[in-house]
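We store chain and fold; thus.
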Amino acid sequence: MKTSLLLAAALAASSASGHSQTFVTQTLAFDGVPNYTDALVFDKYTGLASDIISIQISYSLTVEGGIFIFDNDALTPANGVTAEFGTSLGVTSTDVSLLNGSFQPVISNAKSTNSATFNLAANQGDGPSDFSPDGPDGAQLSGTVVTTTGSGNIGNVLFGQYAGGGTFTINATASQLASLSFNSGIETATTPQIASGFVTVRYEVIPEPSSALLIGLGVLGLAFRRRRA
């Protein structure tokens, strides 16, 4: 009877380790006036790469404030000009590979922007380099609060780079975006905005063997208790 109880406990521990998972998460913030780069230092998973089920890299990027000014100095109107103003986020590392299972960047085209379309009249007599937003040949786009998020999973062949303890650095680079769909003869200027956010690294891992063993011993103790009752 004791052999059967021990076998049941072992099976329970094996089942726990095969179907349960634990999440280990670390989030680090960045903040400033673009253009800038913040070095974010993350902890590697302290266990074995074979215990990792998945690694997710995610981000949040918020922009606010700032002004994008454009002034048509051409002698002809510029109609239907679309302006985009905001910040792009680059996530890079020289310590680990930030690639998915298809060996593509886990985070790409990350940006938070404001956009609008304008009709600008021909130049009204103001000269170059005055950057006047006054109409009808000038306009401006004010930066409102915009937040975007995204995530991606690291390819499992790269898990070894994230395991075994120690640290690695992810560089979060915030770069200002200010573009027009048509800019021939249009001069532009910007005032600073704020770009902030965070990067999160989440490990999904198999529970440590000690945790599974405790589950098995719990089942074993319960069986003995029932038998004695």
User: Anything to note?
Assistant: The two ends are 16 Å apart (CA to CA). Confidence is low (pLDDT under 50) at residues 1-19, 210-228.
